[in-house]
Amino acid sequence: MTATGPIATAREEGRVVLTELESKELLKGAGIPVVESRLAQSRGEAVALAKSLGFPVVLKVVSPDILHKSDIGGVKVGLRTERQVGVAYDAIMAAVAASNPEARLHGVNVQAMAPPGLEVIMGMTTDSQLGPVLMFGLGGVMVEVLKDVAFRIVPLTRRDAHQMVQEIKGYPMLQGFRGQEKVDISKLEEALLNLSAFVEQHAEVKELDLNPILAYKDSIVAVDARIILADA
Ligand code: ADP
Ligand code: MG
Question: Which structural domains are found in the chain, ordered by start?
């Protein structure tokens, strides 16, 4: 494990992978609501940041070499005390040492724990013919197994954003289904339009992944984010 600067990035095959913290900073500037997230570079700093953010918090490994953080034990949610934060910090360090000892480690991301909501995802990929294409879907099984997603070419019109949300098969879930609360669809549409504008303004952004975004009755918030840039 080597410590690198907070803005160090991974360069491979002409791609630069931004960490979750770096990605959220950019997305926040683009008008996408993101959960408040801070970098801790020691156990003590993680505990101090958790106290200043307010419990419960989530701890996550920050490494440009670890893309699927929970797969290696790099995500600890629902931490309610200083002691739990310290234990989680040690557990993440041990998990990285065991699974990925060569990974460049920036530290640990301490973030507010978002309340339970409906998980949705938004993404962008660059098609060789069409250029940037935005994707929207429901999170978890709906996207991984059922591939229930909608696509539109950037730039999106307001109508595109509206239709994307409506055309997924899981749309009834957004409208409140079997006791599940109805979510704020206009906030989802606004986020899609903001993402479209962000991608249009930044040709260097090649891929983008907000997985998941939690949607509520009157707000949404992205809890995980990844941006991949072309290495100029
Ligand atoms: P991964 O790199 O494995 O995709 P995530 O950051 O998406 O890691 O975290 C894994 C899961 O933990 C998420 O899908 C979400 O359910 C939950 N989670 C992550 N961050 C938060 C948070 N700040 N608040 C609430 N739940 C979270
Ligand atoms: Mg994720």
Answer: 36-112 (3.30.1490.20), 118-230 (3.30.470.20)
Q: How far is 22 from 36, CA to CA, in rounded Å?
A: 12
Task: Please give the Cα distance from 118 to 194 (Å, whole number).
Answer: 20
pLDDT in tens, 74-126: 999 999 999 999 999 999 999 999 999 999 999 999 999 999 999 999 999 99
Cα distance between residue 195 and residue 218, in whole Å: 19
Cβ atoms of 209 and 225 closer than 8 Å: yes
Beta bridge partners of 62: 107
Q: Is 13 exposed, middle or buried (0-12, 13-18, 19+ CB in 10 A)?
A: exposed
Q: What separation, in Å, do the N-terminal and C-terminal C-alpha atoms of the chain show?
A: 27
Q: Tokens in use for 118?
A: 């409906």
Query: Residues with Cβ within 6 A of ligand 1?
Result: 35, 58, 60, 68-70, 75, 77, 111, 113-114, 211-212, 223-224
If you write DSSP's letter for every residue of 146-205 in order, what string do you get?
T--EEEEESSPPHHHHHHHHHHSTTHHHHT--TTPPP--HHHHHHHHHHHHHHHHH-TTE
- Measured CA to CA in angstroms, residue 16 lies from 47, 131, 211 at distances of 30, 18, 19
The C-alpha atoms of residue 68 and residue 11 are separated, in whole angstroms, by 17
- Residue with the smallest CA separation from ligand 1 atom 23 is 113
pTM above 0.90, yes or no: yes
